[in-house]
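Morning F.,

Quick status update on the modeling queue. The single chain you submitted on Monday has been processed. Sequence for confirmation:
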Amino acid sequence: MRLVENQYAREVEDTLTRLSLNSDKQKADKLKKYIGTQHHVHGLTSALQASVYKSGFSFIKNSIEEDLEIFNAIYHQSNSFEGKNLAFIFLDKNHKYIPITAQLQILPLWVEKVDNWAHSDSLSKYLTRLLEHKTSHKELLRILKTWNSSSNLWERRQSLISLYYYARTKTEFIKYEISEKLISNLLLDKEYYVQKAVGWSLRESFNAYPKQTFSFIEDNIKSISSVAFTTCIEKMDDTQKLILKTKRKK
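Structure tokens below.
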């Protein structure tokens, strides 16, 4: 799908800039640092961003296909954190009506513009649905396996978090053996945000496959980083946590 002219991204940025004139610049700078993005941060609240989307723009066509093309272009061309967020708000409102084939064609490419954990996690929310859907499962899994060994840390992160996202949102889980292999490949990854993904994926894998995941963590107790370990045991009971913490100290 082609990208439309960037006049739409310009309208979005002009609107966001106007609304941010009275925003707290110090809070915006803190948010930028917290998120870890290189994109400009206007400092607009989530509620205000939702309100901006609801108010609409001149380019809205009220056609899912046309609006998807427009927001796809906005996501790729916007130079601000909030501008890209509007594309995710569009997805949140309309993903049920967007054909799976169109989502599979467009959404994996969004990882190219990810440079922070917030956009990474937002993207995972939709990629994991493609992994769960029977018509897109095979192709999305192929993509995740490729990303698993990518030089791009955000692709590596996506290859793990998209496996389960939050297990409670799923009716079916990816095969345990597949997720174990992808997680194992990145156990020693040096990037902080990839290690956070290791912990997240182990935590959610435990929710889906408690016995197998607990055994995996036991077997790899010395290889799991402190960042990943803290996250992966969050949903365990006190007895399970004690067992793993004790083994980790020995």
